[in-house]
Design goal:
- About 40% of the residues lie in helices and about 20% in strands.
- By secondary structure, the protein is an alpha/beta fold.
- Strand 19 and strand 20 form a beta hairpin.
- The protein starts with a strand and ends with a helix.
- This is ABC-F family ATP-binding cassette domain-containing protein.
- Keywords: ATP-binding, Nucleotide-binding.
- InterPro entries: AAA+_ATPase, ABC_tran_C, ABC_tran_Xtn, ABC_transporter-like_ATP-bd, ABC_transporter-like_CS, ABCF_ATPase, P-loop_NTPase, Val-tRNA_synth_C_sf.
């Protein structure tokens, strides 16, 4: 495979530490690489180095001439003065971008519910993320660098993005580097994994599951080497502890031998460990939600209010482990508010057990606002002077160290912690209050894959009731026993889990984001029903038939595009002096182009019906 870009002997230091120590990496055409590692170890920095955004202290980055690199930042860099359409396609005429099947797919997959003419400044965080992704993916790139692309996306958008990236290039074309903590996404898209740790980049074949298998084997071998080293060190220590007669030049030689023995052994990597914490005793009654409606005043609605939840009944059992799915704005937070008491029902009844102690791991890190200027160890020390976990009594400092905090970080003000460290501290503070009902609202935000695995291990043994709202499919399926979805305000059980929810969503039963800007995208434009030019409304059967034909056309266009690429490849490898053979290839390409043009015209006609 042809080389796209790479870095040779890259060394980078920040004022406080060394990020990379002479790493060498390369990206070839056809590579789909997922980048994992602990927060703060340099995943995003590696992307920026290879993209030329950061200059290494030594070493060099080489990029094949003409290679176009598209970069998605973690942070929001959209121009608020532009509209949605201007952000995605710029000033390209509609007839040009609408005839591009790739651009149409991006728009329908990410922003079909947004008003094309709406200002970017009016969008929510999740909508801005989708617009940023659409703007990037609508362009032509030889390599894509994506930094946490699934942040703020719901399950449907993440599934669409995975499918798009798998089909964007042919098998041996294009290059993808993606930093993400979404393990389902890594397994679905990536063929290789790079683990960033301790100043190096360690490659593994395969996606997340294959990476874990290889890493377990690597760690097992390292553990065997470490056990041998410890045995030798214990023998040395026993020998050195012999009495005064041993304190001669000979012990000095033995000490040097011991130091030499351990000189080339790397330090044991910092492990993150969470053990079962105590919970308040929970009776047989938890929370019963019976025939509940929730609505809010909304002057834009004909009725003067907007119905969020309709006739919801949910009897939460002790020890229940439930995952809740739904598009952004469907009412998931409202439902959790009923459980906690933060939301009052418009009708129906909510009953809570007398012994219920509910805690919520929020997205906003609310628990840390009042202590942001305090040292980490002081924040934990105010709770108790000692804790019993896993059958052992620990000081606050020891407990924090088992959560992955270093000695230096224990004296760090909370406000100076990284996002992942704040998330760990937030979770610990909640567990130390000994709740028996734990609500996790997007718990995977800001956590690396190691910390997610540690948190899942904790939740496996946690004896209370667990309610999870997350767009992280891997985590959802890992820690919950059953899933429900909020669809059009109703609470629906999903025996088939996330797959069943995605099928319902694809069939049009998943609902639209209530946070969407009013209006429609250019692929589903509607005219004012009161205007003279308003087109007659198509029947439901006509719309379904049109959608079915559009899906068929999309598949045909993909097939024709692959055929055209194949002919181009044959033409490039053909004897260039055989003019007759080259003419046949040209005629074949012209026939394919004519068929594509005809299908695209039909596609646009059908889009008007929809």
């Amino acid at each position: 495979m042809a080389h796209l870009l790479g870095g040779e002997s890259l060394h980078l230091e920040f004022p406080t530490r060394t990020i990379f120590e002479g790493i060498t990496v390369g990206v070839n055409e056809g590579d789909r690489i997922g980048i994992v590692g602990r927060n703060g170890d340099g995943k995003s920095t590696l992307l920026s180095l290879l993209a030329g955004r950061i200059t290494p202290d030594s070493g060099k980055v080489t990029v094949r001439s003409g290679t176009r690199i598209g970069f998605l930042d973690q942070s929001d860099i959209l121009d608020d003065s532009l509209s949605v359409g201007e952000t995605i396609v710029g000033d390209t005429p509609e007839y040009e971008w609408a005839s591009d099947s790739k651009v149409r797919d991006v728009i329908s997959g990410l922003v079909s519910d947004l008003d094309w003419d709406a200002s970017v400044s009016s969008l929510s965080g999740g909508q801005r993320r989708r617009v940023a992704l659409a703007s990037l993916l609508a362009g032509d790139w030889d390599a894509l660098f994506l930094d946490e692309p699934t942040n703020h996306l719901d399950v449907e958008a993440i599934t669409w993005l995975a499918r798009h990236l798998k089909n964007r290039w042919s098998k041996n074309a294009g290059g993808l580097l993606v930093v993400t903590h979404d393990r389902w996404f890594l397994d679905e898209v990536c063929t290789d994994t790079w683990e960033v740790h301790d100043g190096i980049v360690e490659p593994f074949e395969g996606g997340y599951a294959a990476y874990i298998l290889q890493r377990v084997e690597r760690d097992r071998q390292a553990a065997a080497v470490e056990a041998k080293r410890q045995n030798l060190m214990r023998k040395e220590l026993a020998w050195l502890r012999r009495g005064a007669p041993a304190r001669t030049s000979k012990p000095k030689f033995r000490i040097d031998a011991a130091n030499e023995l351990i000189a080339d052994v790397p330090p044991v990597r910092n492990s993150i460990e969470l053990s079962q914490m105590a919970v308040t005793r929970l009776g047989k009654d938890v929370v019963d939600i019976e025939n509940v409606d929730v609505s809010y005043e909304d002057s834009t609605q004909p009725s003067g209010h907007r119905d969020v939840l309709k006739k919801v009944t949910w009897r939460i059992a002790p020890g229940e482990r439930t995952g809740i799915l739904g598009v952004n704005g469907a009412g998931k937070s409202t439902l959790l508010g009923l459980v906690t008491g933060a939301v009052e029902p418009s009708s129906g009844r909510v009953k809570r057990g007398k012994t219920v102690n509910i805690a919520t791991l929020t997205q906003q890190l609310d628990e840390l606002k009042d202590v942001e200027n305090d040292r980490v160890s002081d924040v934990i020390g105010r709770k108790k002077t000692s804790y019993v976990t896993g059958g052992k009594e620990l000081t606050p400092g020891q407990l924090l160290e088992r959560l992955g905090f270093t000695s230096a970080q224990l004296s760090t003000p909370v406000k100076d912690l990284s996002g992942g460290q704040k998330r760990r501290l937030q979770l610990l503070l909640i567990l130390l209050d000994e709740p028996n009902v734990l609500i996790l609202d997007e718990p995977s935000n800001d956590l690396d894959t190691d910390m997610l695995a540690a948190m899942e291990d904790l939740l496996d043994t946690w004896p209370g009731t667990l309610l999870v709202v997350s767009h992280d499919r891997y985590l959802m399926e890992r820690v919950t026993d059953q899933q429900y979805a909020i669809i059009d305000g109703t609470f629906r059980h999903l025996p088939g889990g996330v797959d069943e929810y995605l099928q319902l969503s694809a069939a049009g039963q998943g609902g639209k984001s209530a946070g969407a800007v009013s209006g429609t995208s250019p692929l589903g434009k509607q005219q004012d029903a009161g205007s003279e030019s308003a087109a007659p409304k198509a029947s439901g059967a006509e719309v379904r038939a049109a959608q079915k034909e559009i899906n068929q056309i999309d598949r045909k266009l993909e097939k024709l595009t692959r055929s055209k690429e194949s002919v181009h490849e044959k033409m490039a490898n053909h004897n260039q002096s055989d003019y007759e053979g080259l003419a046949k290839f040209s005629a074949e390409i012209a026939d394919i182009d004519a068929e594509i043009d005809e299908l695209e015209m039909r596609w646009m006609e059908l889009s008007e019906i929809i």
